[in-house]
Amino acid sequence: MTSLKSESDHINSGAIVYDVVIVGAGFAGMYMLRELRETGLNVLVLEEATGVGGTWYWNRYPGARCDVESMEYSYSFSEELQQEWNWSHRFSTQPEILEYANHVADRFDLRRHIKFQTRVTSVKYDQDNQKWLLKSSSKEEFQGRFCVMATGTLSSVNEPKFKGIKDYQGD
Question: What is the pLDDT of residues 4-16, one digit of tens each?
Fold first, then answer.
């Protein structure tokens, strides 16, 4: 498959128009990046955090671990990856899952296609130009022919509504 555009494809604002812009560098976002890049598409991932891993980047509380078997977190697109990674627990801890996510990002050179510390604040489809327009909290704008929301179901903080929570000083 050939790319839908060249690296120099720009529209009026001068911004690069990517084939695909993915929001989120968790497990789904990294998988989409790898698969789409393999087809020759020009892909950019926007990630609010300073690293990959999604939920496993953010949830670092003591005792955090997965509630499904570790093998469920193994990507199956690479036999070599499956053979080189050994899970130490049947239900892995957060640090090990995050270590795996980082290993995958490094092993497949995904980081160079991820813009970290970029919180997407709006996504709008421009019907006239047939492009997705994404804006960030830093006022940067990104454009893509396609947009994939890989933010997952745990993508925003859900603060419990307990009386007095604003006054609580503990962990």
Answer: 443 434 444 556 7
Three-state SS for 31-88 is: HHHHHHHHCCCCEEEECCCCCCCCHHHHCCCCCCECCCCHHHHCCCCCHHHHHHCCCC
Range of the domain at 139: 17-167
Number of structural domains the chain divides into: 1
Which tokens hold the place of 118? 């970029």
Residue 144: pLDDT band (50, 70, 90) is very high
The CATH number linked to 107 is 3.50.50.60
Q: Is 7 among the domain residues?
A: no
